[in-house]
Write a structure and sequence with these properties.
13 helices, Peroxisomal Thiolase, Chain A, domain 1, 5-stranded mixed sheet, 35% helix, 376 residues
């Protein structure tokens, strides 16, 4: 049984005054309008923190009531920053059972009303408790991965600057992105040190926002061809190689096999580069470029909208912003818009027939790959 993305409801990312339910409602209405508000019988909602004004929010029933979907079945999911990918996968599998006809998928986060220290502690919940207890944070562990990658392939730290420049330039054409201004390599390299070699502009921003999709049974230009997910040891010290995410490689392998396609057939991709050097690790793990060669292809224009494999035309996590749960839905939504011919100024040069979206939880502990395309 096939499932396709019938409409996309992007929400604007950034520092927003609205609350969690308001943000989710905004994106949901856009997605529902895209299908003429046809009946929804499954509401799948993702949020890592689900903070409301008075503490944890009863997000699922509150959103259902706001949208008039009280009669729908409901799911609430969480897998840290991979929540969006998980929520879409769960909804697809539910539709494939034949029990449901149409699902609204929405993922949302409200983050900017908390201090950076509070957000840092909350995000560290996706790390191993021993690493967090020792003072480990997401940027600190991402810096370790980056150091190993640069060392293994004898690459300069400046490749991370180029990745940030790429994403921010792409985001300029995305009216829903947190950042609407391009940056230079010099600006990135001179930004405040966070966990060297990572600097402020190498790291995703704390953002508010939501993204939504409507999934329907049947075929369309953005049909779900393949799903893959995989997990890895949550503690970095337990991994064999820090220069690759085995959960991405295995999730990608499973998605390619499920879709009956190869990496060479992917024509557009959105990858979860919460830290800009991860742009290269993800592209390489997914087989879109040879190991250690991602920065070369970027420098040659290969990731641009008219390049060999356009990556992150939405601006990626670095340019689009990172309301953590919502990012995975935004990635799948962007690929669907490219396939549906609805990406407007972000449209890649050659209309694609197959696209890939990748979402990551924590430092690669639970990763998701979704392949969309026009059915053969």
């Amino acid at each position: 049984m096939t499932v396709h993305v019938a409409s996309v409801g992007p929400g604007r990312y950034g520092k927003r005054p609205e609350g969690l339910v308001d943000l989710a409602t905004e994106a949901s209405h856009r997605a529902l309008e895209g299908v003429g508000r046809r009946p929804i019988d499954l509401l799948a909602v993702g949020s890592m923190m689900a903070w409301g004004p008075h503490g944890p929010e009863a997000l699922l029933p509150r959103l259902a009531s706001r949208l008039g979907l009280d009669s729908a079945h409901g799911l609430r999911l969480d897998s840290a920053s991979g929540t969006g990918g998980m929520t879409v996968h769960a909804a697809v599998m539910a539709l494939e059972t034949g029990r449901f006809q149409r699902a609204l998928v929405v993922a949302v986060e409200k983050m900017t009303d908390r201090t950076t220290a509070v957000i840092t502690r909350a995000l560290a919940a996706s790390l191993d408790t021993s690493e967090a207890a020792a003072g480990g944070t997401m940027p600190a562990l991402a810096a370790l991965v980056t150091q190993r990658y640069l060392q293994k392939f004898q690459l300069p730290p400046s490749i991370a600057d180029a990745a940030s420049v790429h994403d921010r330039a792409m985001a300029v054409d995305n009216p829903f992105a947190h950042f609407q201004k391009a940056v230079s390599a010099d600006e990135v390299a001179s930004s405040r040190a966070v966990a060297l070699p990572l600097r402020l502009l190498h790291c995703s921003a704390i953002s508010d926002g939501a993204s939504a999709l409507v999934l329907e049974r049947g075929e369309g230009p953005a049909t779900v061809l393949g799903l893959g997910q995989a997990m890895d040891a949550i503690r970095l010290v337990d991994r064999d190689d820090l220069t690759t995410f085995s959960a991405t490689r295995l999730a990608g392998q499973r998605a390619y096999e499920n879709a009956h396609v190869t990496p060479s057939q992917v024509q557009v991709a959105e990858v979860h580069d919460a830290f800009s050097p991860f742009l290269f690790l993800h592209a390489e793990d997914l087989g879109l470029v040879e190991p250690g060669k991602g920065s070369e292809l970027l420098a040659a224009g290969g990731f641009a909208r008219d390049g060999r494999i356009p990556i992150n035309p939405s601006g990626g996590v670095i340019g689009r912003g990172h309301p953590v749960a919502a990012s995975g839905v935004a990635e799948i939504g962007e690929v669907a818009l490219q396939l549906r011919g609805e990406a407007e100024r972000r449209a890649i040069a050659t209309p694609p027939r197959i696209g890939l979206a990748h979402a990551m939880s924590g430092i690669g502990a639970h990763n998701f790959v979704t392949i969309l395309g026009a059915p053969s």
